[in-house]
Amino acid sequence: MIRDPSPRAALRAIAATGLSGATARQLRVEPSRARELLVEVSHERLTGLAVLAEEQGALELSAAGRDDLLERHEDQLALDLRLEQVLAEVAHTLECAGIAYRALKGAVLAHTLYADPALRSFGDVDVLVPTRDFDATIALLRPLGFHRRFVEPRAGFDSRFSKGACLEGADGLEVDLHRTLAPGPYGMLLARHDLFSRPARRFVLGGRRVEGLDREIAFVHACFHAALGDDPPRLTALRDIAEMLERGFDEHVVVEVVASTGCVAVLQRAFMLLRTDLGLPVMGDLADWVDGYGLSRLDRVALRTYAGAGRSYAGQAVVSLWVMPTIRDRVAYALALAFPNRDYLRARDETYTRRISRSVHLAGGRPPR
Amino acid sequence: MSGVAAPGTRWRRVDDVLTRRTARSVLVLVPESRQPLVLAGAATAVWDVLAHAVDDSELVDRVAAQLAVDAQRARDEVVSTRVALQRAGAVVEA
Known about the structure:
By secondary structure, chain A is α/β, with parallel strands linked by helices. Chain A is 55% helix and 9% strand. Chain A has helices at 7-15, 31-43, 47-55, 63-97, 106-112, 134-141, 157-161, 184-190, 215-228, 235-247, 251-261, 264-277, 285-291, 297-304, 313-323, 327-338, 342-348, 352-363; strands at residues 2-3, 27-28, 59-60, 102-104, 125-128, 147-148, 164-168, 174-178, 201-205, 208-212. In chain A, helix 9 (215-228) packs antiparallel against helix 10 (235-247). Chain B is an alpha+beta fold. Chain B has one domain. The A-B interface holds A 51, 55, 70, 73-74, 77-78, 80-82, 84-85, 116-118, 171, 205-208 and B 15-25, 27, 29, 31, 34-36, 38.
């Protein structure tokens, strides 16, 4: 029994609820501390797993705490359903327009990976489209009420260099439109692989067919999300990886994709986080292969731009320059960031002088060997 | 009155609703709505039985059996829940 655990320790235990390799922990939260924990549970979108932990006796709450948790869970599920409605509408729109797409993360994993979709909540809709259809998709979603949340540095920048664009609907719900699966250098490296080369995983939402990412690329994406997303990592992303490892997938495909694109280091960091943050043993052929990978200097520099004190968009921008395949791309990328359009500057309250000064500073870095 | 149907009319859930279940409730989002219905108590049993086409008599009997209550006493609440679900667009004539 752990009495009054720290919020992060409690969240980690909740995120690992029911996993076969997880150490069973019993958490008792005093009524005076329950609200603080449940706010964090909501923030991490772990209400479903917290309810499961409470039902299994692994999380002990007062009656009032239990009611609070169930109310939070219902609020989150109401949001999940609205987002699924949006995803079904977006999927239908893209299908009618003949644009290939893959739904990512949230709803796909809730319906195809978890024992009960109520265990996997989410906060937005994520959809991947081919780079060539990126701008057309944004135009196609405009009549549905979606507009860009952030201005791009120059017209066409996002479809050429960014992970994607965040689109906001009239009611504040967001569609994260992707052209690759992560920002920065590793997203660019992974984009060298055709993410549409494998058949979609189909499922039905509200009577409409939706195409999700296949198991293997979904596993790679979950690792990218955990290793390169928020810092500290989203516990839902780590739970996704653990669920996928338990259910299994074609490991050879995963090895081929990350080895051919130079992204093994991302899996290595994701596995490390699975061990340290969820306390799970990660074993087997894939884990042995990933653990045996020796980080290159590029890996070490690139990983520092995603996590810890060195995490920064500017740092990712510099390392991105190093992984671009052509000089022409590098010049276009650097010019767009150094001389973005005025709307972009206005949105960030910046000036050209300050921008150029920062660009000169960034350009001074040397690529690692 | 809308929702009151001829005897023998059979009802079922709409096919393309989105749902989630918790320990105490079922959330139902119908295509035309932006706000999910939250069904609790006896309404969750009504929703469960409406997975298959039933008329009001069958619905009352099955819900009463599921909740272990007297069918006559449950009738008004069960039928009014079915009517409310129909008006919300979550239930249609089979």
